[in-house]
Automatic annotation (TrEMBL):
InterPro entries: DUF938 (IPR010342), SAM-dependent_MTases_sf (IPR029063). It comes from the Bacteria. It holds the Pfam family DUF938. This is Uncharacterized protein DUF938.
Length: 207
């Protein structure tokens, strides 16, 4: 157990996130997780979504911790991490669904652009992309705690910070993704859902 990384935030939010993913990934056979982090989410989601294969990925330095969690997993639908850096060619050509948690605010904006471009290139038509984290809407913070978190991130690296839905939606549309829904989550977080579509004219923006 000692070599397993642990995030209390992951422990707290894994079930609320799963409740949403069960809706969008009900008929999905293969999900790519971008930025698997500690590996806690991957184990929980793979266990409760046994009909699909959950493919972990992250930068190489996080693989040991992810593998430590996978080592103790009893199922056969959880795959060891791919090395995925959004600024480099992606190691996977296609995925029926894509999930990512708490990634866009720790990337620089050029990396976020490459992130969405990669999702658009990898996600199969009609597949869902579910992005979890804190976001701004129309330039406004949704809570004082999110504003404080944004200030903290920028103090660590001026390139980091909470992203605005409006800006992400522009990237998504350029990547061929149609906005589906926003889900309010605990602790002032959200899940934003897009679908790979051949017809963006049906997309409905958040007011």
């Amino acid at each position: 157990m000692s070599d397993k990384p642990f995030s209390q935030a992951c422990e707290n939010n894994k079930q609320p996130i799963l409740d949403v993913l069960q809706k969008y990934f009900a008929d999905t056979r293969h999900v790519l997780e971008i930025g698997s982090g500690t590996g806690q989410h991957a184990v929980h989601f793979a266990e409760h979504l046994p009909h699909l294969t959950w493919q972990t990925s992250d930068q190489t330095q996080y693989h040991h911790g992810i593998n430590a969690w996978i080592d103790d997993y009893q199922g056969n639908n959880l795959k060891r991490p791919l090395t995925l850096d959004v600024t480099q060619p992606w190691p996977i050509q296609s995925a029926e669904g894509i999930f990512s948690a708490n990634t866009s605010h720790i990337m620089s904006w050029p990396m976020v652009e490459q992130f969405f471009n990669g999702v658009g290139n990898t996600l199969q038509t009609n597949g869902y992309f579910c992005l979890y984290g804190p976001f701004n809407f129309c330039g406004e913070f949704t809570s004082d705690s999110n504003e404080s978190f944004d200030q903290y991130l920028k103090s660590q690296d001026p390139e980091m910070g909470l992203r605005d839905y409006v800006d992400l939606e522009a990237l998504a549309r350029d990547a061929g993704l149609m906005f589906v829904e926003k889900h309010d989550m605990p602790a002032n977080n959200f899940i934003l859902v897009w679908q790979k579509s051949v017809d963006l004219s049906q997309s409905t923006l958040i007011d």
